[in-house]
Fold:
Amino acid sequence: MVFGKTVRDLQENVIVSEDAITGTLKYVTEYTGFSSTPDLQEGNYLVVNLANNNFSNFTSVKIGLDPTQGSGLVEIINDPDKNGVFRIANTSQKFKIVSISVDGVENTQIFDLSGLTLES
Structure:
């Protein structure tokens, strides 16, 4: 469950490759667990889980959309489940991961979202 919905409620056949995310994002209404703002409780949502990644050599790992909507990149290094849910307004947005290693080296990964299908 992510904020009161199952991943299956939100998306199907989502695949993350080296530089792209593809699949189908279902159209969801009344997603009150995502936001208390009514305008943000409806739309297409991408669930990203980075729990299988080893972050022991990093001081920071932030994820988010570019261009951003809302709060920008979100720090997940201390998040126990490493889940992120993002409302996708259009597929011209990019998904971004910025990590900083313990020796201060910053790495940025950008994922193309144009292969996502947004159901209406």
About this structure: The first helix runs from residue 7 to 10.
